[in-house]
Amino acid sequence: MEKPEKRGVIDTWLDKHRSIYTAAIRHAFVVSIRDGSVDLSSFRTWLGQDYLFVRGFVPFVANVLIRAGKESGETSDMEVVLGGLASLNDEIEWFKSEGSKWGVDFSTVVPQKANQDYRRFMEALMSSEVKFSVMMTAFWAIEAVYQESFAHCLEVGNKTPAELTGACNRWGNDGFKEYCSSVKKIAERCLENASGEALAEAEDALVRVLEHEVAFWEMSRGGQ
Ligand SMILES: Cc1ncc(CO)c(N)n1
After folding, report:
1. Thiaminase-2/PQQC domain: which residues (predicted)?
2. Number of separate domains in the chain
3. What pTM, to 2 d.p., does this model score?
4. Of the candidates 119, 143, 140, 142, which has an alpha carbon nearest to the alpha carbon of residue 191?
5. Cα–Cα distances in Å, from 112 out to 23, 25, 116?
6. Cα gap 183→188, rounded to integer Å
7. What was the ipTM of the complex prediction?
8. Domain for residue 93, yes or no?
9. Probe residue for ligand 1, chosen from 47, 50, 85 as the CB with the greatest number of ligand atoms within 8 Å
10. Is residue 5 part of a domain?
11. How many angstroms separate the alpha carbon of residue 8 from the centre of ligand 1?
12. For a tag site, which of 13, 139, 161, 186 has the least CB within 10 Å?
């Protein structure tokens, strides 16, 4: 049996914003992977766009790493983030091999609006004006949406096409779930000591991540 996690402010926010949270983790595109009805041109679109997203996410995580080294209360925090950065190294390689498997040439993929908007949002979060607790909350949300979404595609009763299980395993595996829970604990600890202003900003950042994730799935489903 898994130990029940202590409920913190993030869980309170997720309850409060349940409808957008559900929209992000149970989007029609993800549900279509799970039920096997996914349109493969949508999957190709997602693959190309997400490769570009991840290239923008790497500097964001690198920034989180730098700030964790300076501002975080516990030495293990930096190691958690470093682990995430290391898996992004594998992820880039994984994207490249998927790209050739699916005939997606990343050098010709143009970032669509939802992707550009999301990347701009991440860039804004890298400003030194943004509090570390806010950055950490957004970081957790970005990872958690993928974890929850792709784990859903692997749950019992799924009809996920065999050629898509690699993608689902990448984010839906138990190790990634553990990692997300470690990131969440760091964010929660930072939020425990945060000012009212920082809390409001973190809640806003969380909701905005969820909105960007919904728009990203929407764009993928559009499949161009
Ligand atoms: C859009 C998007 N959100 C999150 C992740 C990683 O969690 C990703 N690869 N792409």
Report:
1. 15-221
2. 1
3. 0.96
4. 140
5. 20, 21, 6
6. 9
7. 0.98
8. yes
9. 50
10. no
11. 23
12. 161
In terms of pLDDT, which residue wins out, 189 or 4?
189
Distance CA 217, CA 33 (A): 12
Is 180 within the bounds of a domain? yes
Residues spanned by the domain of 42: 16-222
Is 35 a member of any domain?
yes
Helix and strand counts by DSSP (H, E) for the chain: 10, 0
Residue 119 has pLDDT above 70, yes or no: yes
Residues taking part in catalysis: 213
CATH number, domain containing residue 136: 1.20.910.10
Please give the Cα distance from 121 to 162 (Å, whole number).
34
Residue 126 tokens read as 């890298």
Residues whose CB falls within 8 Å of the CB of residue 204, separated by 6 or more in sequence, listed in order: none
pLDDT tier at 4, thresholds 50, 70, 90: low
Distant-in-sequence, close-in-space partners of 183: CB < 8 Å, separation ≥ 6: 80, 81, 84, 136, 139, 140, 143, 144
Alpha-carbon distances, residue 71 vs 62, 63, 64, 123, 140 (angstroms) = 14, 12, 10, 19, 17
Q: What is the pLDDT of residues 167-193, one digit of tens each?
A: 999 999 999 999 999 999 999 999 998
